[in-house]
Amino acid sequence: MDFLRDSQLPEAFWSEEEVLGELYTQMLKVVRHKLWHKNDAGDVVQEAWVRILEKRSTLRHKEKLIPWAKAIASNLASNANRARRHERIDDYLEHEIAGIKSVFDPESMMELSDLLGRLDPVTRTLLLYKFYYGLKDAEIATALQLPVGTVKARIHRGKARLKTQVEDVDRYT
């Protein structure tokens, strides 16, 4: 930790325990603020420590250790969020596929057909392209000559309408 002592802070400040404690506190604050799942904070800070030790030779200005460490911790927290998002999407798709398998009884198919029939033709077409035929948003946009953002927004609103209809049907049955 000799390189830490080159800073312009008073010598009394730079006991190793105080420096490490301050670094840990600062990184933990950043990580907790940025993470969606606060339980991952300890793991992310630990990974940040590893990165700091691996990359310590790249620190140009020793007095910028704390901001540098916070930036590393922040980037790792973003990476952790990104990884969690992918896990969440995979779990959602797995759940949806399991749900679809149970939908194939004739009564459910009739109910689904009825619900889709209540939607306007454009929304119905978008939802069928997306979920029945499995087309990607960009493919749908190309086929319908619409911007991708428009397709995404209409699919989102269509799913919301369909969900509202399902809730209405459940409420009255």
From TrEMBL:
Cited InterPro entries: RNA_pol_sigma-70-like, RNA_pol_sigma-70_dom, RNA_pol_sigma70_r2, RNA_pol_sigma70_r4_t2, RNA_pol_sigma_r2, RNA_pol_sigma_r3/r4-like, WH-like_DNA-bd_sf
GO-annotated biological processes: DNA-templated transcription initiation
Presence of keyword RNA-binding: no
SUPFAM superfamilies membership: Sigma2 domain of RNA polymerase sigma factors, Sigma3 and sigma4 domains of RNA polymerase sigma factors
A GO term for molecular function: DNA binding
Top-level division of the source organism's lineage: Bacteria
Domain RNA polymerase sigma-70 region positions: 25-85
UniProt keyword list: Sigma factor, Transcription, Transcription regulation
The UniProt record lists the keyword Transcription regulation: yes
Domain RNA polymerase sigma factor 70 region 4 type: 110-162
PANTHER family assigned to the protein according to its UniProt record, in alphabetical order: RNA POLYMERASE ECF-TYPE SIGMA FACTO, RNA POLYMERASE SIGMA FACTOR SIGV
NCBIfam families, A to Z: sigma70-ECF
Family label: Belongs to the sigma-70 factor family. ECF subfamily.
Protein's recorded name: RNA polymerase sigma factor
Record organism: Cohnella luojiensis
